[in-house]
UniProtKB/TrEMBL annotation:
This is F-box domain-containing protein. It is found in: Cytoplasm; Nucleus. One of its GO terms (biological process) is regulation of circadian rhythm. Its main location: cytoplasm. CDD domains: F-box_FBXL21, FBXL3_LRR. It comes from Chloebia gouldiae. InterPro entries: F-box-like_dom_sf, F-box_dom, LRR_dom_sf. GO terms for cellular component: mitochondrion; nucleus.
Amino acid sequence: MDAVGAVGTVGAVGAVGTVGAVDAVGAVDAVGTVDAVGTVDARPVVRETFQEPVQFEYIGLLHSETFTMKRAGQKVMAGTEAPGTSQTSKKQKTNLYGSGFGESDLCTSMDWGSLPHHVILRVFQFLTLVDRARASSVCRRWNEVFHIPDLWRRFEFELSQPATSYLKSTHPDLIQQIIKRHADHLQYVSFKVDSSTESAEAACDILSQLVNCSIKTLGLISTAKPSFMNVSKAHFASALTVVFVNSKSLSSIKIDDTPLDDPSLKVLVANNSDTLKLLKMSSCPHVSPAGILCVADQCHGLKELALNYYILSDELLLALSSEKHVDLEHLRIDVVSENPRQVQFHTIKKQSWDALIKHSPKVNIVMYFFLYEDEFDAFFREETPVTHLYFGRAVSKAMLGRIGMNCPRLIELVVCANGLQPLDDELIQIAERCKNLTAMGLGECEVTCRGFIEFVKMCGGRLTQLSIMEEVLIPDSDYSLDRLHLEVSKHLGRMWFPDMMPTW
């Protein structure tokens, strides 16, 4: 370990566990270059010294340690030779650098404590939190830079139960230090939790303590099952209210799969209607059509919205199309059957879609379907301006036929499964009428080689993404699989092969 004055053994940051002895950060050679952490050049290294003992604060230490540097009447020299460094190489390096620099220049070039704050800050911005914490122990100036607010604008809290999760949890000491010292600096905050209710409740507890913050973006992420749904509505609403009331410049909120409700949305609108630009709230069952309509009516700067189909309404589309509202850029709609074959899906009027497209002609409308084949009756009976379609379950030939007839803005189509009926006619119709189609993916479907080649021929080079499993393609008398890839490659203008199922 490199000697830094009279430095003791330092524990690593608690968020990553315990590391033994920490090498000096940034051992310096004569020309001012910084070697990797822990590498020590054979030449003497001058370190900054202090008249009085200095205590450095590590954030999130498993075991907090204090170390001091004392004036020894002259500059402290660390002359420890790195293992494996020979006298010959040492002499060569000394001659090399000594020829260009005097001894005073050498000392000056290695006075890292005198670097301007903005230079150190720039370097720190490229380091991880762990490396910044280690570097902050070099000298007082580096420790001061470690706490500059610009380094604490963005933070992701990871919360998990060690016994049941692979997710590494943010150390509790680090969480408390952030709340105590840097809460008012946080602007971009996210919480990543595992499948346990305890982790979701811990995230809500942290949110409740962010009373002095001014958050701009907030994200709640469940890495497995939606654990926030197990938190009581009162606890979750109380935590969100703290953030919504104290943060007056929220622009982006991602809170899918949470017990968000209408009263919480009203608090959000009352405090952030002028700044909100993105709201993702898919699978929030406690939000009603009236609740999301309140957001659209008041938040005229909203550009991106994600929600479930059951709260999509004609009134909502018209509100998003008002003169006061900015152009909508992205609308994601999840169509999910919560109670299979027991829900009657409503139909959105063509006039409402037309109003939205007239107001926001470049909007991307993305729809994810997780329905059974007999639940599609309400969709695509009239022209629908959808641009991206994803079917997570089987979809009928009739449904694909309606897509070809009534989705002229379609850009991407992904079909997970269809059955055992060839889709030649449906694909050809889609290629003919959907002039903007650039991406296609087919899973458990069937298409003849002839029909597939005709589809690709009609789309041509604009089909930039084409993912088809080899098992989907049915050889016929005209085309084998070997010949098919050559024909498809010719029409696409690039080499193409069908995807193959891996063999384990």
